[in-house]
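EI: anyone free to look at a 386-residue chain?
SC: sure, send it
EI:
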Amino acid sequence: MADIGRAFIWVQHLLGIGHLMRAAHLARHLASRGWQVEMASGGAALPDLDVGRARFHQLPPLKAADTAFSGLVDLDGNPPSDAFKAARRDLLLRLFAAAEPDVVILEHFPFGRRQLRFELDMVLAAATQSSARPILLSSVRDILVERRPEREEETVAAVARFDAVLVHGDPALVPLEASFTAAPRIKSKLVYTGYVGGSAPAPSPPLGDGDNEIIVSVGGGAVGDKITETALAAAHSLPHVRRWRILIGANAGPRLLRKARARAPAWVVVEPARRDFRGLLARAAVSVSQAGYNTVVDVLAAGARPVLVPFSTERETEQTLRAERLAQRGLARVLPEAALTPDRLAAFVAEALAMPRPLGKVKIDGEAETERILSRALAWRRGVRA
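SC: here you go
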C-alpha cells in the first residue's frame, strides 16, 4: 500500500486562475487517496472551487497590479502595507505549524512569485529548522515566462533549498529547458509528472448539448473579444452547417456575453462557461480556444480536435510555445491571433474536422503521478529514519 502522509500546498494566482486550478487538482486527488491536505491560497477567492476532501485556507488576497506584474495590490487596488504583509505571513506560518506536514509544495516558487518572499522565506526557514523537516517541493507548469539571465541565476541558487522540482508537463512535448535555459543545471532535481487535471471530474452535459458542435471557449480581455467576434462572423459565413456554442468565461464580465448574444444567429448558442466543459468537448466536432494550460488539458482529456488561438505578447510566449509543440505533433491547428479573421477561422475549423482525435499521445495524469512520487519519497524518508 502506498505511503500516505500530510501535505501542505501554497499557491498564489495573480491574474488568471491556472495556478489555483492546478493546485486544486493536486489537493483534491491527494485527499481522495487518503492524504491529509491543507491548501493555502493567496489570490482572490474563486467561487465553487473544488478541493474535494482537502482543507482550504484563504489568505488575505493579493493580485497583480497590472498585466506587466509590476507589483502586488489588494483587491481594492492598494499596495499591501507592512501590517497587511505581517498579518498574512503570520497566518500562513500558523497554518503551516498546525498542519505539521510531511510534504510542503510551493506552487511556482522560486521560478516566480519573488514578490511573496516576505512570507515564503519564513515558511522555508520554519520547515528547514523543524526537527521533523518535511520534504520541500517546488511545483511548476510545463512552460515558464521569459526571464532575464540574472533571474535564472537567482532561481538556480534558490532551488538548492528544495528537495525536488515537480514539473507538471510531458518532456516529450515541452521539456522545461524550452523556456528555462538553466534547466540542465538543476536536472537532478527535476521530476516530470505529466500534465495535471486529466483525471478531473467531467460532468455529463444534458442530452444533445455539444453533439457535433463547434465549441468556442474564451476568457476576458481584448483577445477574448476578438475570438468571440471572429467566431460569430465565421458562423454567419457557414449557416446551418453545424451548431456553434460560444462559452464566455466569468472574468470576461456580462458585457461580452450580452454583446455576443445580440449578434448571434439562430444556430449559435452563447452562454457563460460551464462546469461540464470537458463533457461538451468530448461530444464536439471541433474546439476553438486559447492555449492556456488548463484549457489544453481539458481539450486533450476530451479527445477534441483543437484549433488554438494562443494569447501572445512580447513577454507572454507560454501559450504560443505550447500550441506550436502540439501542432508539431499533429495534435492541433494553430491560428495566431494576429492572423485571426472569419475566413481563416472557418478554414482552420474545416481542416481540424479532418484531423484524427488526439487520444493518448500526451501524458495528462499528472495528479496521479504526483501522488505516486510523493508516496515513494515519503516511504524512502520513513525507511531512512526507521
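EI: The chain has two domains: 6-199+364-385, 214-353.
SC: 👍
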